[in-house]
Write a structure and sequence with these properties.
Blueprint (H helix, E strand, L loop, with lengths): L1 H9 L4 E5 L2 E5 L16 H31 L15 H8 L9 E3 L5 H7 L3 H8 L33 H14 L7 E6 L6 H12 L4 E7 L2 E2 L2 E2 L12 H5 L2 E6 L3 H16 L5 E6 L17 H5 L6 H11 L5 H24 L16 H4 L4
Parallel strand pairs: 3-4, 4-5, 5-9, 8-9
Antiparallel strand pairs: 1-2, 6-7
Helix pairs in contact: 2-3, 2-4, 2-9, 2-11, 2-12, 3-4, 3-9, 5-12, 6-7
The structure holds thiamine diphosphate (TPP) and magnesium ion.
């Protein structure tokens, strides 16, 4: 890892910053990697994005494994439910990790988007504090799991997992448009089940009509809780719907990190260039239950054993090694760093106070403290 850092920084091309126990690298400012049709990225950018994405995936997986272990222990550290993004990290980080928080982009992550959230810039402390109920968390210890956000920093809290994020991001993008801000992209995610809701249709239609710079990542994990694709929609591929909305559609293997990165790079570039909403549908499988209370016994063994059942983290490691993008010792270092970061964040959150049951006002949610930057 350090060798890689030295190699990259030695070329003077990358700005590595140390924050929240992880190095974050930024795209060099002022350089354009977009071709005329917005579809190509240089190999150097692909490699740098993929390496950072894998590191984020490893961290997200380690964090979620820890939270899952707490939940399963039954010792009461977690008062809400636990919902994992296991198996969906590649697709998630390919969107969240390629948006630029510091330039005003927006990312509305859902319950499967721990990797995307971290890729966008959510700190591991925000995640740990929310699950473990610390008052220092962005929801001040009141939210059991994933309805957390920092709207001022481009991370709206999710309302529901069922398609509502699209309208939320539309509103934020319209607000930026009215303020005269240009070149900003909003990313929203949805599941296959969410695409059947009115909220999804209304949101995507509105974005198309307004030609908003919106990128929607639909993680088709084959099930909405236990409802399979054949009970969910009658079109062959969800991407077929893009034509009906009048937006650009992409259908990809969502377990493939490099394919996901390249596709979202193109989609984000197009949205940023003013070409309106982009719909990316990724085929994958969630490698967990709907929540940790669900054993997912309804998922056929054949599906688990097939291509979609491949673990995207394992696949990405193999892929990046084969491409010569990084070495096994560097991957091992990612794992070690992630384990240390998770333990440290959990220890910090556990040591912090929880909301007081009688002294706290317990209004459901007040975003004022977030908007005013008081946390
Ligand atoms: C309006 C609304 N209806 C139902 C639910 C309960 N619910 C939460 S997630 C979910 C299934 C979602 O399936 P999908 O969109 O495929 O996402 P996945 O869980 O597979 O990521 C349901 C029924 C909800 N949160 N909100
Ligand atoms: Mg689903």
């Amino acid at each position: 890892m350090l060798r890689l850092l030295r190699q990259l920084s030695g070329k003077g091309k990358w700005d590595w910053r140390f924050s929240n126990q992880i190095f974050r690298c930024r795209k060099p400012q002022g350089e354009s990697f977009t071709t005329m049709d917005g579809s190509k990225m240089t190999n150097e950018v692909l490699q740098q994005t993929a390496v950072e994405a894998l590191r984020t995936m490893v961290l997200a997986r380690a964090f979620e494994n820890k939270i899952s272990a707490f939940y399963r222990s039954g010792l009461g550290q977690i008062s809400g439910g636990v919902y994992l993004g296991r198996g969906q990290e590649a697709f998630s980080v390919a969107l969240g990790g390629q948006l630029n928080k510091n330039e005003g982009d927006i990312f509305a992550g859902l319950i499967r988007d721990q990797a995307g959230r971290m890729g966008f810039g959510e700190s591991i402390d925000d995640a740990a504090r929310t699950y473990l109920g610390s008052v220092k968390g962005p929801m001040r210890g009141r939210d059991g799991n994933i309805h957390r956000g920092r709207p001022k920093e481009g991370m709206p809290a999710m309302i529901s997992h069922l398609g509502t994020s699209i309208s939320t991001v539309n509103g934020m993008l319209m607000g930026k448009r009215f303020q005269g801000k240009v070149g900003i992209v909003g990313g929203a995610t949805a599941g296959d089940g969410a695409t059947s809701t009115g909220a999804f249709h209304e949101g995507l239609n509105q974005a198309a009509v307004e030609k908003l710079p919106l990128v929607v990542g639909v993680a088709n994990n084959q099930f909405a809780y236990s409802t399979s694709n054949d009970r969910q929609f009658a079109c062959e591929d969800l991407v077929d719907r893009a034509i009906g909305y009048g937006v650009k559609g992409y259908s990809i293997d969502g377990t493939d990190l490099l394919e996901s990165i390249k596709t979202f790079y193109e989609a984000i570039s197009r949205a940023r260039a003013g070409e309106g909403p982009q719909l990316v549908v990724g085929r994958l499988l969630r490698l967990a239950g709907h929540g940790e209370h669900d054993d997912a016994g309804y998922v056929p063994d054949q599906l688990r054993a097939g291509e979609l059942g491949k673990d995207c983290v394992v696949k990405a490691k193999t892929q990046l090694l084969a491409e010569g993008m990084l070495s096994q010792p560097e991957i091992d270092q990612f794992e070690d760093e992630a384990a240390v970061a998770v333990e440290a964040a959990v220890e910090r959150a556990q040591a912090e106070p929880k909301p007081h049951p009688s002294e706290d006002s317990w209004h459901a949610l007040s975003a004022r403290h977030l908007i005013e930057g008081m946390l």
